Amino acid sequence: MAIYCRSLKADEKLKLEDLSKGTDEDLSRRAQIVLLSAQRTGVYEIGQAVGLHPINVRKWIHRFNRFGLKGLDSRRSPGRPSRP
After folding, report:
1. Which of 20, 33, 29, 28 is closest to 61 using CA atoms?
2. What is this structure's pTM?
């Protein structure tokens, strides 16, 4: 089953295009994922284009669909607590 992002609003598309050309490499990659998905490009093809595993591509598409542009921001990874 194919997964794609939801339809983009005009202002979202403009913001994503700006982000995709920005200096933050990770955020730029995530914006590219959403833009390619909006063009109905498959997850595997997007992964090859941006250099990410398809699982990560799906993660960012799901986050965008659920939270919009705010979903593309990095979250703090839970990981191991720091030692005192």
Report:
1. 33
2. 0.86
